Amino acid sequence: MHCFACQSAINPDDSWCSKCGAAVRERVDPDSERRFVTILRADVIDSTGLVADLEPEEAVSRLEPALAAMRAAVRQFGGIVSKELGDGLAAVFGAPIADDNHAPLACHAAIELVRRVSSLGDPGLQVRVGLHSGHVVAYMVASEFSKVYEIGGAAQHLAARLEAAAEANQIFVSEACQELADGHVRFEFLGRKALRGFGEPLPVYRVMGASDLSSWRVRRARSVSRFVDRTTERALLWRAAERISASRQTVLLMGDAGIGKSRLAHEFVQDLRTGGWRLLDTECSPNLQGAPFSTLKRLVLSLLEAVAKDPDRLEDPREGLSAIHRLAIDAVLDVPISDTRWSELEPYARGRAISEASCAVVESMARHRRTVLLIEDLHWVDRASDAVIAALALLQAPNLLVFLTSRPNGMPEWIARCHAEVIAMQPLDDDSGRAMLADMLGTSVTDTDLKNRIISHTANVPLFIEEVCRGLKDNGTLRGQWGDLSLVRPIEELGIPSSIQGVIAARLDRVPRQQRQVLQVAAALGPRSSEAVVRRVSELPEDTLQDCLASLDRAELLVRIDSDLENSLEFRHEMVRQVTYESMVEKVRESVHARVLAAFESDETWRDDPDALCYHALRAKDWPKAFNYGRSAAQKCLLRSAYVDAVDYFRTAMSSLDRTPLTDLRETNAIDLRMEARMAFIWSGRVAEWIDLGKEADQRASEIDDVGRKVAAMTVMAGGQNFYGTPTEAVLLGEEVVGLAEKSGNPGWRNLAQYNLGQAYFLAGRYREAEQTFARGRAHLMGPDAIAPFGTPPKYTLLLCCMMKSFTHTVMGELDAAEQLQQQAAAIAEETGRPYDRVAAAYSGGWLKLGRNEPAAAAAILEDGFVLAQKHGIRLFVPVLACHLGIAYLEQGLFDRARGMLTEAREEAKAVGYTSAVLRSSIYLALATHRLGDVQAAQNMLREARNTARQQGFSGLEAEALFGEAMVTPPSGAANKAAILAALRAAIAIASDSGALPLKHKAESMLNEMLARGDELT
């Protein structure tokens, strides 16, 4: 434990620091919270020089006026002084009560701070200010006599460095603060500056002054979406507008921050103005809550502007007022008043005069034309204006529509007295949310899952949708222009933009402490939780818990969902859960998750749910349990063919195991885990990561000198080489691994190594050797003692051997043999029912039908397999199924469909890293392109595919590309005829060597036809 003042070590039982005499302060951990705030640091420049020659009392008197001005400025804009530093202070905005305007408020406070100190008339007192917005840990520090609210974290250091960099009477802010306050405040970018303690120069901005833009104009300038839906709310507003001819109508549009109140209000009043209505508008500003009549002043200015712009030359309504009422309007406008009649009035009488005068001028305006009086954000109204607005809302004036907007927590008490129609705004429905997303993202973003995730994440709150999309664009996940964005990388988590963290946090801060604890437990449990588990983990008395749940349900934060099985609790939207969760400091989070884990482990209902157990073990940082539960969850995912999820759980298990102490047992577990994980990576098409698993396992096996596990690792690498490398490299590695596997005496890995080697021979165009190798592997796997590597069912490896052997026989023209093997593969798939097996059988079945010249039947089989592969995320098969489906379309004469499918096949093969599939789809895409009339493009594609196949050793595909070149080259001119003959002869030679008899016969037939026509040149 250390002294807060001098940082000397002190004993926990000490009341005073032995070094400096300061009282020991105790940090109260339960009150600690993570907060997103804006920090203000300010100090007097060269304060030491100012007071160096003064007595202590004189020094205090010299600096105290500046400190008092600083405190007053901070408090005027809702800040909390967290620490005084002798010649300056540190303050925080947005805590302990969250405020979504913390950055603009801090900037206005800084402007006011500089103004107040400058107005003291002491030229020696000059201040500098630094501002930064970021996450901090906020907590109460208790001393013997008081409690102090303090903050900790790196964010405060950046604010201090910005303060130190600023010059006299200047305000420097970070980029984070500038982004949040931009529009409300004017900034000058100063470039990047080197700040002490930070490795790289950081962007720095200087505050130039407050902006004269309204909050609506700031929001509108930032908005990139169009107005959607709100049919119900608009109908209610129009109904109120239609009734004004009989009497004054007052409408309150109520909704939480971000729900779209201002957008709807301005869209509606614009429609009214188009219909001939006059608009008088004002807004209540959080920056001006402390300024009397600030809202009313904006209203009067709006009224005078409307008079000046009136085409009918409307008379100034002030002309018909009494003298006192005209003075009242002048007072609101801050016009100097020398008339003693005003100064002699009592304060109450002045307020009444201002209210009467305001009502009179508004009534006068409404008398000449239908008028809408729009007053926005009533929850921020200053106290003096509130009474006048109440009088305006009660005003009995036909042709006047008083239109108010407010958040629920700021709804004025007088609303009931004025019989206002309250329209409660709800989030958009799903269709409207999708329409908004389509307008922002454009048609190129076809990822329906992304749009659904955004809708679920934001609960269709318009501001949240827009800011989440903006965040994805700013961080490069979405690229392009608004209305035409493309998703360029996977999204792990949508997150919460800093611009709306305060909106949600402010709402949560209205929740009492015990309800907050319940929310935290529910947040740790996830978007939906069981009431029984919340009861057990929160450890609250039953009556207290039920009161908390009822209050949270009414507030629509944690909603009760009754079901036949149990009472469930669900967050209204995911962002509320995330803000609640992120508000907990790390130690509190770990404690909550540990309690949840213990509750789950002792409950039979959850004991068989490794997914949930892994989640909480990981976040409780219980690494051994996270490893065990992660592995179990991955195995469970494999059984239900959820391959992408299996990859995630295997990764969790691997990283958790690596956090445990290094032992030989840990390393053997790590190798085995990677071997077991290989199937999830293979099936989901993560070829590069599949190879990396093998390399890492090989290195670990070498370090502990485990020969058997080294053979397993090399087998995995050999399998990956068939997809990611060249056939020559794959054959060399495959032959080596088969030899090592046979020597190691492990038949399971030997069988898999033989399958891998057969596949390498096939890709190299060595079909006879491939057939013999597959035959040996198949024979081993069909015996009563059939063995496959752990994590792989023997019938799965047998099916693959049958599939590849069937391919080989088809390529060699031995269709009866291929048929027998296909029937065996189909029988295994029927028996297991696993999606992966069914896809593999469909692939070989479609290939066989193509070999039999039955393209329609092939297409039917391949289409089923393609759909199944996409549905279950079996990405490894998607490009090859798409390729052969495109070939089936091509052979049926469906050239457009063929080109589309083959293009998709090639792109997917590139994404997966499946080299042979890229080449094969390119060859047949060229043929489809040729049939659609683009001969030159087809020739270019085939030439490129042929050269690549030759360079990398894909001799079978080289022969197919050569035959394709012969087909697409026009037989006109000596040069073309020579090229065709050369291509055919080369294709025949390769096909003859490899045993690809059907291709050889096709090429020979075409060659003979040309020779018969006398096309051979001398």
UniProtKB/TrEMBL annotation:
Alphabetical list of InterPro entries matching this protein: A/G_cyclase, AAA_16, Nucleotide_cyclase, P-loop_NTPase, TPR-like_helical_dom_sf
An individual GO BP term: cyclic nucleotide biosynthetic process
Signal peptide: none
CC annotations in GO: cytoplasm
Domain of life: Bacteria
Keyword Nucleotide-binding in annotation: yes
Keywords in alphabetical order: ATP-binding, Nucleotide-binding
Molecular-function GO term, any one: ATP binding
SUPFAM superfamilies from the UniProt entry: Nucleotide cyclase, P-loop containing nucleoside triphosphate hydrolases, TPR-like
Protein name, per record: AAA ATPase-like protein
